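Onboarding guide, step 5: your first structure request.
Type a short instruction followed by the sequence, for example:

Predict the 3D structure of this protein.
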Amino acid sequence: MTMTRIAVFLTLVALASLNNGCGVGMTARKYPPAQGPKGVNMRVTTAQGQLSGELIEVRDSGIVLADQKLRLVPYTDILSSEVEKTSSRYAIANRSVPAPDARDHLRLLSRFPYGLSPEAMQRLLGSYGQTELAGLTQ
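The system replies with structure tokens like these:
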């Protein structure tokens, strides 16, 4: 083979590899939170029991979760958690505040990644028939 043929062959192999590499792993088409405006589903275990619902907002003190009600779940009450189709390294556990990178990742997966203004929070609470966030015992 001449050098030109070898170079053409290697270029074609490289292009074919790049094309195949794009379809491997999670894509927006396969990831439910990327399909609409909802946040990921999350299961949280506390001393009071289990909650399962949509991750609405991530705050410095805890997460806002929507099950039958909008609830503020403080990190200090979370024994363990699972985030739908997300690595366990982003789970909240052991009553600890998650590391900043994990909290930032969860924030991006929530329905409101940039947080809620007080007015938007009041409208959302009103849609649930609430005037304030419920706690774990309400």
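Each response can be followed by summary notes, for example: The two ends are 77 Å apart (CA to CA).
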